[in-house]
Design goal:
Helix content: over 70%
Shape: rod-shaped
Largest sheet: none
Distance between the termini: 17 Å
Radius of gyration: 23 Å
Strand content: under 5%
Number of strands: 0
Length: 108
């Protein structure tokens, strides 16, 4: 890998990182909405249910199962974006290390 390739790689990784910031925000926003929908549905279902507290809890959890799945999928998306951003950061550090090694070799 030459210095030109390293520079291009760093520019590409920087651009990917910049795109990741709004992607993370959007994923976190979707998660917040999914959590709100789950909490609201579960609470309403609990209040509408009849029976003992345990029965009402069970009915509320059953009624909100789809909302819980949507929340869990939104969490997975947030985690995926965070992981991608960490990978980009690691790749940038590796490219920077390669650049320093190349500079050291050129001095010799």
């Amino acid at each position: 890998m030459n210095s030109q390739q390293i520079q291009e790689l760093l520019q590409e990784l920087t651009a990917d990182g910049r795109r990741g910031v709004p992607a993370l925000y959007e994923a976190e926003e979707r998660l917040a909405h999914a959590e709100h929908a789950l909490d609201t549905l579960e609470a309403k279902s609990f209040l509408d249910a009849e029976g003992s507290v345990a029965e009402r809890n069970a009915r509320a959890r059953l009624a909100s199962a789809d909302a819980r799945l949507a929340r869990d999928l939104a969490k997975a998306q947030v985690n995926r974006v965070k992981m991608k951003l960490r990978m980009i950061e690691q790749e940038m550090m590796a490219a920077a290390t390669a650049s320093k090694l190349l500079q050291a070799e050129m001095r010799l």
